[in-house]
Each structure stands twice: as C-alpha cells, then as structure tokens.
Amino acid sequence: MRDINQFSVTQAVKDSFKTVPGSRFEQLLHGMIQHLHDFTREHNVTHQEWMATLNFLYDCGQISTPERHEFILLSDVLGWSALVDMINTKGGATEGSNLGPFYLDDAPAQPLGTDLAHDRDGVSVLVHGRVTDSLRNPLPGAIVDTWQADGAGTYPIQEQAKGQDKYDLRGKFTCDDQARYYYTTVLPKPYTVPYDGPVGDLLRAGNRHAWRTAHLHYIVRAPGMTSITTEIFFDNTDYIDNDAVFGVRRSLIVKPKPAKDIEALGFALERKPDAVIEFDFVLAPEG
Ligand SMILES: [Fe+2]
Question: Which of 187, 188, 193, 189 is nearest to 244 (CA)?
C-alpha cells in the first residue's frame, strides 16, 4: 500500500476488512466506504470541515442519555428515518411513520372504550376504526398500541418531575371480534423536537424550525402479520406541510368530525367526546 493515492485508497480500505464475501455486512460496509470517499472527493472536504463534522458527532454522543438519543433526532431531521420507513412499508399496508423517542413497550393494556385523557383539558375525541389485512379481512384480536402528547403538546413522560404518570395518554387495546378498536382521548397539539443540542444548532444553521405537527402514535400488531409503526395527522393544522421530521403522509391525514350520532356505533365509552376520528389500519402478511 505504499503507492496508495486518493483514488486507490477506497478499494484498499474495503479490502482491509476480512468480511464474508457477498454478505449483507460486507455490502453495507463497502457501500458506506464508497459513498463517504466519493463525497469527500466530490466536495474537496477540508481539514476544518472534516474536524467540524467529527466534533458534531462527538457532541451528539455527549448530549445523549438513556432518555435522549440525539442520533435518532439527527436521523429524523435529515429525513433518514422517514426514508427507512418509506422503503420498508409493505405493499397494501398502512404507510409507516416515525416511532419517535417516547414509546414505552410496557404501557398498560386498556379495555376498549377507555378514556386515555382522564381529566385533561382539550378537545375530547373518539378514535376508532378496524384492523384488517390488505384484502380488508378483519383481524380480531389485533393489538393497537398508542401514545401521544396532550392538549398542550407535552408527553406525560416528560413531566414526571411535576408528578405526571409516564403511562398516561398511552395504552394497548385488543380489537373486538369485529376487529374494531375504540377509545377516547384529547386532540394533541404540535410540539418542538429538542433543539438545545447539536441537532438544534444544525436546524438553526439551516434556518429551519423544530416543530412537529400534531399526531397520534401507533404500533399495530396481529399474529402472522407484519406489525406497523405509524402516526395519524390532522388536516389543516399547524406544520402539517413542514413537519420537522418529514413524518406526514397524505394517507395518514384525518379530519376530525363533530361527534354526532355516535350512539349508533354501539361503543361503551367512559367519556362523551366532542369529535370523532375514524382510521382503519391495514397489515400485510409476515415475510
Ligand atoms: Fe410524537
């Protein structure tokens, strides 16, 4: 490797890794090396720019904690999370969207009809729909796992120091024998992603805001089906067309309607809602 130069170094680095030929690991590693080197040559990256990038990544690591993953946020604001969601959405299934940082996999199971909002302020809304396969066959017993911000744009998990229960405004519902889910809650408000760290500096450097449009989070599962992680958004709300993490998809936007004639649905509800949202989730088979 004495005669290495700015072009031959790329292959030399690939060859230095003794990977299994044709393996997925080798494919991704070699691809990453190739793109990184091509990028550097194409833009004549300077020493200052190289060090600024490494310091930025160092800062992302320094500010990260078990509750704050700055690299996920970086992925989100660069649209990388959205791109991974998009290319991994299965044909015919509900489109995927951001998991975000506030999911708790041990959230409590809740009976259908529960009010997740308790005594919170905000617009009370009935959320209901069905879980089906892509041929619209119902999937009774499917699990609808949801979590959300409150009517002020805050997740209870962020307010534990103020006495809030981190499991508030979240729950796992088991669909009934018609594959229906239904519960009441309050409409969430937009909120900002954390912008007091290096990713915030990046947003400011690019004259970008940190706002996420209002949304409800979901993971939906059923035996034999590929689970989906997604969000529901609301038409004509702030930041719907410039969400900071590129989470919005047209197919995931709903329009809350006034809660009229909901008795006909036959749901036993804890709280009488002001508005109604209907959204069906579609799962594709595993594999
Ligand atoms: Fe969120």
Answer: 193
Give the CATH number, domain containing residue 140. 2.60.130.10
Distance 22 CA to ligand 1 centre (A): 38
Domains in the chain: how many in total?
2
Q: Determine the distance separating the centroid of ligand 1 and the alpha carbon of 49, expressed in angstroms.
A: 33
Closest CA to 133 of 190, 91, 85: 91
CA of residue 224 to ligand 1 center, whole Å = 27
Q: What is the pTM of this model?
A: 0.90
CA distance 138 to 177: 9
Between the CA of 176 and the centroid of ligand 1 the distance, in Å, is 27
Scanning the chain, the segments in alpha helix (DSSP H) are 8-16, 24-43, 47-63, 70-77, 80-87, 198-205
| Residue ranges making up the domain that contains 264 | 80-283
Residue 54 domain flag: no
Is 228 inside any structural domain?
Answer: yes
Whether residue 130 sits in one domain with residue 36: no
Tell me the pLDDT tens digit for each residue of 139-161: 999 999 999 999 989 898 888 87
